[in-house]
Specification:
This protein starts with 25 loop residues before the first helix and ends with a strand. The strands form 2 sheets. Strands 2-1-10-5-6 form a 5-stranded mixed beta sheet. Strands 3, 4, 7, 8 and 9 form a 5-stranded antiparallel beta sheet that branches. The chain has 8 helices and 10 strands. It folds into 2 domains: 244 residues, no CATH class; 138 residues, Alpha-Beta Complex (Sulfite Oxidase, Chain A, domain 2), CATH 3.90.420. With 427 residues, the protein is α+β, with helices and mostly antiparallel strands.
Amino acid sequence: MPFVDPTSPPPGPFRRTFWRSPLRGPWLTSVLGCALLVGIPIVAVTGFLSNAAYDPRLGHNSVGRSLGPLDFYLFSFPTHPSWLYAVNQGLHITIGLAVFPILLAKLWSVIPKLFEWPPVRTLAHALERLSLALLVGGALFEFVTGILNIQYAYLFGFFFTTAHYWGAWVFTGAFLSHAAIKLPTMRKALAARRRLAPLREGLSQTRPEPALPGADELIPVNPRAPTMSRRALLGTVGAGSLFLLVQGAGQAIGGPFRALAFLAPRSAHGRGPNGFPINRTAAAAQITAGHVDANWRLRVIAGARTLSLSRAQLLAMPQRTYDLPIACVEGWSTTQRWSGVRVSDLAAAAGLRGDVIARTRSLAINGVFDAAVLSSEQISDERTLVALKVNGTDLSLDHGFPARVIGPAIPGVHCTKWLATLTIERA
């Protein structure tokens, strides 16, 4: 007697009679798949570009993980235009949120495939099932952990950045192979039903899809009466996507649009020149007024030479003012007017000019992003500053008083607040 009887599936979801929705079928799955073919590549590309913007090749910037064979970087992330990282991360989060309802609908449409019987028929079928497990598992892992990260809800017991990065490679590889295999079936399913013709069908005309050779396993063998049309289903999914798109876009664009993102976890931080969003407050970083009183000094280290500069001395140096965005990995950004001393001027004052990098260190001691490395491209850009003021007034303590880093197209976590040390080295 065989261990698994391929002709007798156990009761429940392993039997095709269990799945009775008349909406399921290759056409519905193909329409949802077409939408994902547009959205997921945008999310994937912007995600990998976001990782590149961190420049993990530079020491501490690879925080949380070691570089591996897939860490190949052909260029340093550009500093022009200054809003490049803000747009990249805004797209990553906004499109990712918009895609999520479509992804869930797609998984619902193909869920009978996950309960095929027998589970494995041949070696080729086993490989197909493995790729499907990687695709579904990878998709859920990436989107769920990404959304939790946006909400600062770290309910998992691992470091988000590392897991999300390697999960992205697994999911992207599985998605590309799955799309390549299923593309002919998608084209056939859409052509068989005249592309978007089913969208003209109301509830009374909704029937199970006609059989499609080689792709009829999703069509119910014992359908129940429909409770909604395919048009209503896709409209509901589309409305959910649009709602989440507005939430993401509101926090990414900012300004008057931020009020639309009422589910976003970060909003304006009070009123006045310092009244813009904050990821990490001084209290969270255990920074008090005593840490940044008149005794505070910025140490600029260049080899054997060390400068110890008070805030008054920094203010006495040539000041530059630029409108620059600060953009965080969670998708929000805001553009403010920053004033301070060029990092390149501080490097020159310490005796190093030309192709240099800068290691920053914060007074904070309880965070994984309390240090960063600025690339030579970032330092050579005159807009990369040790900022002392914002919008014409002193930085607030929560925004990094007495000094912080700001620069064009630099990820927010590299704009070190409560700056303590700036170590200049040859690139």
